[in-house]
């Protein structure tokens, strides 16, 4: 009886792992015109290179994501370089370099994020650069742009207008706002809080 249970457990585990591997296949190359017109499925992981003309959508990506005219979208995590002309969007975490006219990471970001409009939902560790840089949570590092916003800024904001809910660092710009520093929450040119 004991051997039968062990054998049955082994078979069930093997089928479970095989089913998981089939639902999240990994491919070394993804080519996309407009998702779903692409080599693989939107649920595939890419470990290598993804090239797209207008729109590509996959789960996780490890490697290089290059979009000539379009948008690269990931429902999972990204590690590497994500360069898409229109935009780069990651629903999970990202580590590396993300750029495009529009960038958006919903999870944690570590590295360099640059574009015209940059959105960050979770914590950012590194450098966020663009015309408009918006981070809802904590930023540890550097924000540069015409308008910079951080929930909890720990580092340097350099731009025309800098805004933070909490500041542990320096703001350099024409208008610097640190909401937590009541009553002197606004300071022109330079603002610091430690």
Radius of gyration: 21 Å
Determine the number of helices (DSSP H or I, runs of at least 4 residues): 1
Order of strands across the widest beta sheet? Answer: 3-4-6-8-7-5
How much helix, percentage-wise, in residues? Answer: 10-25%
- N-to-C CA distance: 67 Å
Mean pLDDT: 88
Shape assignment: elongated
Q: In terms of per-residue confidence, which ranges show pLDDT below 50 for 5 or more consecutive residues?
A: 3-22
- Briefly note the structural class of the backbone: mainly beta
**Main beta-sheet annotation:** 6 strands, parallel, barrel
The number of domains? 2
Could you tell me the strand content as a percent range?
over 45%
| Number of extended strands | 12
The succession of helices and strands, N to C, reads HEEEEEEEEEEEE
What does it look like?
Residues 3-22 have low confidence and may be disordered. With 194 residues, the chain is mostly beta strands. The protein has a 6-stranded parallel beta barrel with strand order 3-4-6-8-7-5. The protein has one helix at 2-23, and strands at 26-34, 37-38, 45-58, 61-67, 71-74, 78-84, 87-90, 94-105, 109-120, 124-167, 169-178, 186-193. The protein folds into 2 domains: 22-120, no CATH class; 123-194, no CATH class. A hairpin with a 2-residue loop joins β1 (26-34) and β2 (37-38).
